What we know:
Layout: E1 2-9, H1 11-15, H2 19-29, E2 32-39, H3 43-49, H4 59-66, E3 71-79, H5 81-89, H6 103-107, E4 116-118, H7 122-132
Antiparallel strand pairs: 1-3, 1-4, 2-3
The structure holds adenosine-3',5'-cyclic-monophosphate (CMP).
The site of adenosine-3',5'-cyclic-monophosphate has 8 residues, from loops.
Amino acid sequence: MTERTLVLIKPDGVARRLVGEILGRVERKGLSITALELKTADRELAGKHYAEHEGRPFYPGLLEFITSGPLVAAVLEGPRAIAAFRQIAGGTDPVEKAVPGTVRGDLALDGQQNLVHGSDSVESAEREIALWFPHLARS
Length: 139
Ligand code: CMP
């Protein structure tokens, strides 16, 4: 079934010039990029995006990091796009969870500056797409 997912290449990915490397992996996997934008998130957008993590010890640092510079927001589409991108990304912890062959397993070390975000469910994807690309929201 075709799905949509919201992906961020976080500020560390842009600063490290890994945008092409990461989007190349997405395209080689067979997912389509249907929206793509370079932007710097303000705290309001970042807070809404990560609302589920409010109160966690890493939340203030996460907002600081995600608003620290330009990031790339994208909508990807394809069969099982949500799981497919999470497979490409690898687990949240780039050392303990992400395996070699994944973006985080190959290219990241830090649990917070872990290069990418991908929606974790259809509901999250639709909520996140509406935040980052309001014109693509489905009501
Ligand atoms: P992401 O997949 O975008 O979802 C939440 C983000 O919070 C996660 O990637 C990391 O960037 C960050 N994060 C999750 N767990 C931790 C942690 N234990 N310490 C610091 N940052 C974290």
